[in-house]
Structures are given as C-alpha cells and as structure tokens.
C-alpha cells in the first residue's frame, strides 16, 4: 500500500473587489483545464492583459460561477472588507473513488484526495483608493499611481500563479490515479472557501 501523502500546492493571489470574481474564476479554469481528462474544445479568455485557458463545459462553467457568486456574497456581508484586507483560502481537491468490499457485501465507494490546491486570496478593501481621493494633501496623480500599483500587483500574481499551474501540470504527473471508469470525467472534486480564522465552508462537487 502506498502511504505517500497526496501533493498539495499553494498559489497566492491579490484582487480588489471589482476583480476578485474574474481572477478566481480565471485561475480555477486554468487548473481544471489541466485536470479535465476528456477531450474539450480549446478556448481562451482575456483577463488583466493575460490570455488564460477556459474550460468550455457547461457543468464546469456553472459550478465555478456558483462558487464565485457565493464568495462575493460572503464578502458583501463582511463589514471588514470595507476597512482592511480580507484573507480567504479556497481549497480544491481532486478525488479518487475507491470501491470497498467485504466478504459478504459491498460498501459505499470511498473518495480520497489525490491532489490538493490551496488558493490564498487577499481581497483589498473597497476604500483602497478612497483615502487618497478624500485627502486634502493628495493629487490625482497619486490616486492614479495607487490604482496602477494595484493592477500591476494583481496581474503579476495571477501570471505567476498561472505559470505555477502550468509547470506543475507538465512536470508532476506520477501521482495521478489510473482511470478505471467510463464516466466522461472520472474524478469528482471538493471545493471549500475559508475566511481567515473560520472553518471551511462550501460543498463537494462532482464532474460527470
């Protein structure tokens, strides 16, 4: 029996409130693009001057949209998002179904993770630039510079995370389980979002 722990990968992202949905969706689509083991029509989309892969499968699109909508609702009900950054961790696990049998009966299939992705997301406060605008000492150029810095940071971290996914997908494959089912995609996944200091919340989802 192989007792090795399944690999875990950590990606860091920074986003302001207006970009957090698209950035999270973009990175999730990038991961799924390399972990969806069935032929798909290649597609891309543009985000922050980057060209990212897009999984044009209705089930995946709907599930990612649902989870990012839940994430935004959580941010909107958290008052601290308007005063200081909010730190979230989105954990995505790909699972393997293992059939369990005894001498006399068959037990329900066991689902065990074979790969885990942690997306550490820093959501900037909505007043990130407001203080500069309202300050009598600030100038328009200062506000523009602050906005430019934020955009550069978001772009840099998204591009870095995308390259990390690509490098991992190309170089680390030995841990991927054999496919033993005829389902269109044999591996369900578990997706949870946790705010710093809170237990994870979310739900298990499968791709069929």
TrEMBL record:
Q: Under what name is this protein listed?
A: Autophagy-related protein 101
Keywords assigned by UniProt? Autophagy
Q: Which family does it belong to?
A: Belongs to the ATG101 family.
Query: Would you name any one GO CC term?
Result: Atg1/ULK1 kinase complex
* InterPro entries, alphabetized: ATG101
- Source organism: Cercospora zeae-maydis SCOH1-5
One GO biological process term: autophagosome assembly
Which GO molecular-function terms appear in the entry?
A: protein kinase binding
């Amino acid at each position: 029996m192989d007792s090795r722990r399944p690999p875990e990968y950590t990606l860091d992202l920074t986003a302001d409130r207006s970009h957090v949905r698209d950035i999270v969706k973009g990175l999730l689509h990038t991961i799924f693009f390399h972990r969806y083991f069935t032929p798909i029509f290649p597609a891309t989309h543009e985000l922050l001057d980057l060209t990212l892969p897009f999984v044009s499968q209705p089930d995946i699109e709907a599930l990612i949209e649902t989870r990012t909508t839940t994430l935004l609702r959580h941010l909107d009900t958290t008052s601290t998002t308007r005063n200081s950054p909010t730190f979230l961790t989105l954990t995505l696990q790909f699972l393997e179904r293992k059939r369990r049998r005894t001498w006399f009966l068959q037990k329900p299939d066991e689902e065990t993770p074979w790969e885990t992705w942690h997306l550490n997301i820093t959501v900037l406060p909505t007043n990130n630039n407001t203080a500069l605008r309202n300050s009598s000492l600030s100038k328009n150029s200062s506000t523009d510079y602050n906005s430019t810095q934020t955009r550069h940071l978001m772009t840099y971290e998204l591009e870095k995370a995308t390259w990390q996914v690509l490098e991992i997908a190309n170089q680390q494959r030995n841990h991927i389980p054999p496919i033993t089912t005829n389902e269109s995609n044999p591996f369900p996944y578990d997706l949870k979002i946790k705010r710093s200091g809170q237990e994870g919340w979310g739900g298990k989802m499968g791709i069929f």
